[in-house]
DNA sequence: GAGTTCACG
DNA sequence: ACGTACGTGAACTCA
């Protein structure tokens, strides 16, 4: 029968090895280095899989001196201090081990090695099979027929196993003799002297022959004169060295095998720690999942609403209760061709499901009632789904997902499973588990009945439990007003923008596409000729080889993976070869063709001939909205060639015209307001050209002699200020030296003293509270501010400076959107908001309503909030988006 | 799925 | 000494 296995790990030795074997830049976003822990846990994982041990323990050294220090003062003297990057990982590693419920052992006066030796011998006597894991060859003396010593090799990828035979095979001496070898040769890292002049080779040779140091010293015959001298002179030292190198195997320590039993990890703690350490892959490796709580409620009965009587009684119950949880599942195929599969409701702790559209319509009054509160998740989708049934969802709406976003907008996603876990520590199947992902992803109509019923009811329960917690937390964090006054009313505005869409001229798009195709074909041929071979121009790797290896152009910059070939690099090589300008043009054209012509063409709605982008309210860390499928917020404008794409975007019909209204310098105005800077405020109050004013101050010239070059430099400085300036960043942007850039910045901050004070105080504030806020109290946490890593911390500082500016601008335009939308609706106008691009709104205006709409826009946008400086907008109309300039 | 590039504010 | 401008999304290559 096989003996039970016990794994004994030398904690200090192993973490040292993993620390030096893995890249030191591995760190989480708080700046805590994680490489050594990562390696350690990986090895742990490997051991569990390969050996499946019955018992496990990790031994650590203590900082206190051991008996070896008492015997030999110089022991381990001159050893370098553990680097800070490793030291900070030690306590965290111990936390990880605790989370895994792995036993730890350390003892004053002894080293980890001694504890390991003692344990191994103890276990051998109990007929267990000890497996020692270490990064240190010293432990080889413990190898035996029963005890195996595993030593990390080549980084951490392999562990080499040594028993008695393997030590003998490899070194020609037995494990016990290995101690004598070390006694002779000494050990630099432990400062064990040994016999000077004897190294590993000689030591092994001598011990092979004489078996031990004592034997050797008693029989020096047959050795060279020099060797004899060395040995006699250092005899005492050799004996001492041997004693120091000997691992103690009878440390007086009480061992209880029971304590060393391998236990199940505390999954909750492991998950928490791995999340903190950002060990994504390891989470999967260990298959640590939250145990599903056997929630009595999770199998609650679903009341099917399948008759007019039932829907009427449900209706009454809702009116009486004044609130309910709502979750609509639709096939979600297409915004204007969407089919509701079923609607779940939770009223007074009872779950209902409606599948019949006709019966759902019976609930139109309660769904539209402003007096009845609805609790939901992704309510924008529900609103859109209901729109097809001519139902306008209204009332106090609590979107749990939106609330979770406001509470912490930096999260990567807000899946209900994560929110439920985070706020209540409870489990619900995640969407991925339910529907799959990627190609095989199902939609709700393909889900089998049973799963849909259980997921729908569990979701309603989760939402009803979460609502109170989320609202409470919003109130605590001063976010509730932002939610009620801005974010909630914005849901319907975004939904409406998506629903209405932006009309496109298909013919025009095709025309542009054809022209691009022709030019790309020609350019491709020329580039192949230039290169004297055909290659994939889209491949930066292949392009790099052609430009820098074959054609011998000087590489300007490198990336992680090779040569950089971005626009900036190509610009620097512009005159060096004919191929360069062609590549630059090729890149531009291909971008236009693939992203804007083909990309847009692919998302034109067949039914409406329009593009219905999705506007996401819960993505950005600053509070901006984002646009996807397609992104309508990055349609080209800077270069004429790309700008032509905007000719494709047209009004719905000849009754309409497009009107574009954009805030002028909104971010700098926001900066003027929040920094309270006298000069900046004055400049805006007097309607000055702000870049020119900045130029005049930075370069100390009168306003009317500012050159256009100075103005454009000042513009870059203004941008830099908004982004959280650094001399390096500005120097890169302006192609000037860092020193010069620093001069500009210093000059700026001298002249705009309020800005300087703001930048300093906001970083301080961020550090103190852990977050920064916008005008409307929108919050963003910045853990990077406390990072030890310089780059990360600097990034945190720039974020702290930029977020209140960008975020406040986002607040302002969101308010404007809600107000404009409401005015258009209240006045029963046909004109409607169809797009927002961060500081501009695009309205499709009915031609009869132009003046009225212009007034509404001007009023609502300029008075969205009241700042210390005026808000100013520019408006342009046109028959296509291109013309609104 | 990561890395690179490039379109916008 | 450190080495990046802030915020996004999409297309493409390559492992």
From TrEMBL:
<dbReference type="GO" id="GO:0008409">
    <property type="term" value="F:5'-3' exonuclease activity"/>
</dbReference>
<keyword id="KW-0227">DNA damage</keyword>
<keyword id="KW-0808">Transferase</keyword>
<dbReference type="InterPro" id="IPR002421">
    <property type="entry name" value="5-3_exonuclease"/>
</dbReference>
<comment type="similarity">
    <text>Belongs to the DNA polymerase type-A family.</text>
</comment>
<dbReference type="GO" id="GO:0003887">
    <property type="term" value="F:DNA-directed DNA polymerase activity"/>
</dbReference>
<dbReference type="InterPro" id="IPR008918">
    <property type="entry name" value="HhH2"/>
</dbReference>
<keyword id="KW-0235">DNA replication</keyword>
<dbReference type="Pfam" id="PF22619">
    <property type="entry name" value="DNA_polI_exo1"/>
</dbReference>
<keyword id="KW-0234">DNA repair</keyword>
<dbReference type="Pfam" id="PF02739">
    <property type="entry name" value="5_3_exonuc_N"/>
</dbReference>
<dbReference type="InterPro" id="IPR012337">
    <property type="entry name" value="RNaseH-like_sf"/>
</dbReference>
<dbReference type="InterPro" id="IPR020046">
    <property type="entry name" value="5-3_exonucl_a-hlix_arch_N"/>
</dbReference>
<dbReference type="InterPro" id="IPR029060">
    <property type="entry name" value="PIN-like_dom_sf"/>
</dbReference>
<keyword id="KW-0239">DNA-directed DNA polymerase</keyword>
<dbReference type="InterPro" id="IPR036279">
    <property type="entry name" value="5-3_exonuclease_C_sf"/>
</dbReference>
<dbReference type="InterPro" id="IPR043502">
    <property type="entry name" value="DNA/RNA_pol_sf"/>
</dbReference>
<dbReference type="GO" id="GO:0006302">
    <property type="term" value="P:double-strand break repair"/>
</dbReference>
<keyword id="KW-0238">DNA-binding</keyword>
<dbReference type="GO" id="GO:0003677">
    <property type="term" value="F:DNA binding"/>
</dbReference>
<comment type="function">
    <text>In addition to polymerase activity, this DNA polymerase exhibits 5'-3' exonuclease activity.</text>
</comment>
<dbReference type="InterPro" id="IPR018320">
    <property type="entry name" value="DNA_polymerase_1"/>
</dbReference>
<feature type="domain" description="5'-3' exonuclease">
    <location>
        <begin position="4"/>
        <end position="263"/>
    </location>
</feature>
<dbReference type="InterPro" id="IPR054690">
    <property type="entry name" value="DNA_polI_exonuclease"/>
</dbReference>
<comment type="subunit">
    <text>Single-chain monomer with multiple functions.</text>
</comment>
<dbReference type="InterPro" id="IPR020045">
    <property type="entry name" value="DNA_polI_H3TH"/>
</dbReference>
<dbReference type="GO" id="GO:0006261">
    <property type="term" value="P:DNA-templated DNA replication"/>
</dbReference>
<keyword id="KW-0548">Nucleotidyltransferase</keyword>
<dbReference type="Pfam" id="PF01367">
    <property type="entry name" value="5_3_exonuc"/>
</dbReference>
<keyword id="KW-0378">Hydrolase</keyword>
<dbReference type="InterPro" id="IPR002298">
    <property type="entry name" value="DNA_polymerase_A"/>
</dbReference>
<dbReference type="Pfam" id="PF00476">
    <property type="entry name" value="DNA_pol_A"/>
</dbReference>
<feature type="domain" description="DNA-directed DNA polymerase family A palm">
    <location>
        <begin position="642"/>
        <end position="849"/>
    </location>
</feature>
<dbReference type="InterPro" id="IPR001098">
    <property type="entry name" value="DNA-dir_DNA_pol_A_palm_dom"/>
</dbReference>
<keyword id="KW-0269">Exonuclease</keyword>
<protein>
    <recommendedName>
        <fullName>DNA polymerase I</fullName>
        <ecNumber>2.7.7.7</ecNumber>
    </recommendedName>
</protein>
<keyword id="KW-0540">Nuclease</keyword>
<dbReference type="InterPro" id="IPR036397">
    <property type="entry name" value="RNaseH_sf"/>
</dbReference>
<dbReference type="InterPro" id="IPR019760">
    <property type="entry name" value="DNA-dir_DNA_pol_A_CS"/>
</dbReference>
